Amino acid sequence: MGAATAAISRAAGVAEGTLFTYFKTKDELVNALYREIKLELADAMMSDFPRRASVRERFQHVWDRYVHWGITNPVQHKALQQIMVWDGLTEESRRAGITPFLEIEKVAQAAVAEHVFLDRPLDFIAAAMNALAEMTIEFMRRNPAEADTYRASGFEMLWAAISRKR
Amino acid sequence: MGAATAAISRAAGVAEGTLFTYFKTKDELVNALYREIKLELADAMMSDFPRRASVRERFQHVWDRYVHWGITNPVQHKALQQIMVWDGLTEESRRAGITPFLEIEKVAQAAVAEHVFLDRPLDFIAAAMNALAEMTIEFMRRNPAEADTYRASGFEMLWAAISRKR
Amino acid sequence: MGAATAAISRAAGVAEGTLFTYFKTKDELVNALYREIKLELADAMMSDFPRRASVRERFQHVWDRYVHWGITNPVQHKALQQIMVWDGLTEESRRAGITPFLEIEKVAQAAVAEHVFLDRPLDFIAAAMNALAEMTIEFMRRNPAEADTYRASGFEMLWAAISRKR
Amino acid sequence: MGAATAAISRAAGVAEGTLFTYFKTKDELVNALYREIKLELADAMMSDFPRRASVRERFQHVWDRYVHWGITNPVQHKALQQIMVWDGLTEESRRAGITPFLEIEKVAQAAVAEHVFLDRPLDFIAAAMNALAEMTIEFMRRNPAEADTYRASGFEMLWAAISRKR
DNA sequence: GATGAATGAGTCTTCATTCAT
DNA sequence: GATGAATGAAGACTCATTCAT
Predict the structure, then answer these.
(1) Which nucleotide is nearest to A16 (CA to C1')?
(2) Regarding the domain with residue range B26-162, which homologous superfamily does it belong to in the CATH classification?
């Protein structure tokens, strides 16, 4: 689906048969690709993470890195979106894809404990961030001139959505 | 992709060839399907719309109807998600798919004018609602026992995200 | 195995995809082909069968028709040989392929009852005929000038092998 | 065909590439395998050969060893059957495969000279033995409880087929 | 206008063969 | 000489599309 194995191997710079020495089936390949991209994304988000900054600054860091990665890696970003609505993604891969983001959940956990965030399930908070970031990336891509404005507005929305008012 | 034309025609209760008397290609068919489902969804959201209620009540109405439709129409919802990341969706269809939701944007416009909402692009607000609703539907589907809690929490997030504090 | 689906469809005078509207897999196709050829062979053997002639004459008739069919239908004959040692042939097909030859077994049965044949399992007798006929066909094909001699000698061997001496 | 070179090298306990330092192509390898198995079979048949026994006893010896080898070496036996109907087997290999069996033909030759056998081409006699033995092996394999009966009956058939009556 | 059998380009996958180590 | 990762041609199979009925 989406990409033919011929296209994938071409993109990877290997022969078509080579893919199948590493992955038994295309499904397996796509699942592995999903985890790989998720890891890359997590790396991008967590590098230079300001562990001692305020909750808001830490979230802002993660947000900025996320949307920046989305803009500068359009191919991977597009692939990720398509894989996420694909039927062949295993529950196992889905779980594995979340793992690298647990650091972020920990920050959220602390924020809930400190009454900075409303008391909501952590994965729900993480998913909200994800959803708003994806939608913000889309607007940034379509309107590059206003990209910075969208990035800032998007984060304001997120912060308002998850933090305790006042 | 995703569904073969053979499956689509079977689901539609017509012969395989018949599809192609109405649509020149499958791409055209999928684009039409997209608009069709979007219309259904808009209908579901706007029926019984409380035109005279408060901004918050009107948004709550729309939100509740949206997530309810997503839960009760899983097939269409899934199709929609897949079509939205599909390469063949035309810009024209995308625009047409938004049209039925202009009513909602009008409400948002009024809310901005009345300083109920922050001053943001209306389509950005609409997209935020969409993104949060999709993510909420996902949680409701995976955790039916807590569906109502998620629906309410999701709306609180949305409202906090777009409304002016205090 | 042996023949590619491309070759089979070409031989059948249809497009490659057409095969798969009639058979779900190649295995299924080959199994069907096996039964088909077996039926043809049985037809060839049993047409003009001299139901009232002596046991020997009836066996001679069957023998002559068999080796003649093998010589004049080399493609089908070769296919049959290859399918018979193929792993994908189902037990069901094997049984179905034998059915048209039950008439011959009936003759053998009568011959056993009349003490014309030695008292051996009927399928063993039939298999002996089959084995000797196949080997005879091979010699006839390799040495067309002596074909008639081989056909006659082959039958003498068979008759000696299965009939009661003197 | 039937077995991939990967499987063959695994069975042989060598690396995939190693096969091709000994054989230029798979065809060549299979041809060599054919001769190898034929040699093994000939060895099995001719060991303890009772050179001074009667013609019948010598044939019986060969027959017993043949069917015994077929039963106890199912893999090689199956391979042999498949190679024999395979298109790539060279005429040269076919001839070479027969060579180890010339000893048997010599016995048959003597038997013809002594008027024990009917006057038929020696290779025709050998082929008949082969054909009946193969078919007998099949019955023995499918019905192990009656294996000895089939082996004896099979030989009786063979002897009747090739020896001069009375 | 509706049908569905037939088509063949395109897809995933296998496997004999090569070659750098 | 041995290895096994890499290759790509060839194989089985799918599916959007056509067209005679």
Answers:
(1) F8
(2) Tetracycline Repressor, domain 2 (1.10.357.10)
